Amino acid sequence: MIGARLPCRCLPVVIALLLVRVGAKAQPFLPGNTYFSPNGHIEYRCGDLPLIISVPHGGALQPADIPDRTCNSPVYDVDANTVELGQAIDSAFLARGGCRPHLIINHLARRKLDANRNLIDGACGDPQAELAWNAFHDFIDSASATVTALTGKGFYLDLHGHGHAIQRVELGYLLYEDELALPPATLNSSTYINYSSIRNLAGNNLQGLTHAELLQGPQALGTLLSNTGYPAVPSQQDPFPMAGQPYFSGGYNVAQHSSYAGGSIDGVQVECYYTGIRGTGVDRARFADSLAMVMDAYFALHYFGSGNTCTSGLPERPSTTSIVCFPNPCTDHITVAWPAGTSATVRVNDLLGRV
Ligand SMILES: [Zn+2]
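^ Those are the sequences you sent over. The predicted structure of the assembly is below.
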């Protein structure tokens, strides 16, 4: 979880973000290989899908020569098991077709480095922590540059865990809860699209969906996730947090690395509840498989259609069909999508084979 919401959206913040992004540089990283920062605190698994996942708060390393952070109201809470969850998501994509997302992991404990804050607040002036902070964000920038060069657009997930009482995945698009409750016409205004971490997608998606539809409609990310059995907000089922309900709207990383800051990589902060998602290896594997299916569908619906997005040439999903169907098997809900302009017959069997 994050300790504070975005302080403001004023011009100086935007300028600072752009200055950092200019320094990003593409590196000759190879898909399937794993790289570490010079001190070994940051891990980068290079991928070949237009998906970037970062894990800033799950690390466990506490080197004695890096002092605990004391500057600017530090938060020490670790997002338990999110490193393992990120690794499970990586494995789930690999199992689906041999392709993988770009995965960046901070292995330092949050009391040593907060990789979801700016350099000053996150590293508190320690040289090793600063080295790790720079490596973490340089790896993300490099992955973004690679994705942009190869597929022109993509998506970024900043993976966290929350301890709120309401068991739902909180998707942070940099919009506050009262803003998510605004009428669609207001959410679709340029003012709120410019605040959004899916700013690029709102202006350029395959079906011409509106910003509000991408946040809360039948094909929103939260809706697709809810359909697999993992309640999420915002979504069609749960469009916005009610007043007084705790909710993380997105932090430094999403503001830094999503299309809010420019470019064509959209993003969202994903705050996962514990029991059923992060608690056990079985839970993590099931959620990871569902998330992989959801992202596959999300890319097909809004970004790439039935085209192959795996830049190493492997099909990231079965190439014999452009139909997306998940979860399979299912319990209460199933989502089936196929290309516009074509027809499909859907037959549902129960576990006894009955139609
Ligand atoms: Zn966190």
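The pocket of zinc ion is lined by residues 1-2, 57, 79, 160 (CB under 6 Å). Strands lie at 34-36, 42-45, 51-55, 102-106, 154-161, 169-172, 232-233, 265-272, 324-326, 335-337.

Shout if you want it in another format.
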